[in-house]
Design goal:
The protein is mainly alpha-helical. The chain is built from four helices and no strands. Helix 3 crosses helix 4. The longest helix is centred in the last third of the chain and has 20 residues. It is elongated, with a radius of gyration of 15 Å. The N and C termini lie far apart (50 Å).
Length: 75
């Protein structure tokens, strides 16, 4: 039996009652963001995600900083 990872993921989040539009990619992003928030080294996160170019992983860090600044401006 061959499992499509996205279908397994969709089944799991539907059973969990999650209503948001999510994907495996959003799960990877949330995982990486959690690691970054916990102080994990960016190079280690790069290795875990399989990014060959560090700039790809650094985008996550830049996005997080911009989001936090934008969020704080509206409080």
């Amino acid at each position: 039996m061959c499992w499509d990872a996205q279908k397994v993921f969709e089944s799991a989040y539907k059973r969990a009652g999650i209503k948001k539009d999510v994907s495996i990619q959003s799960l990877r992003h949330a995982f990486a963001t959690h690691l970054l928030d916990s102080g994990t080294d960016l190079r280690y996160i790069q290795e875990l995600l399989g990014h060959k170019n560090s700039k790809t992983t650094e985008v996550l860090h830049m996005f997080k900083e911009k989001f936090c600044i934008h969020f704080l401006n509206f409080q």
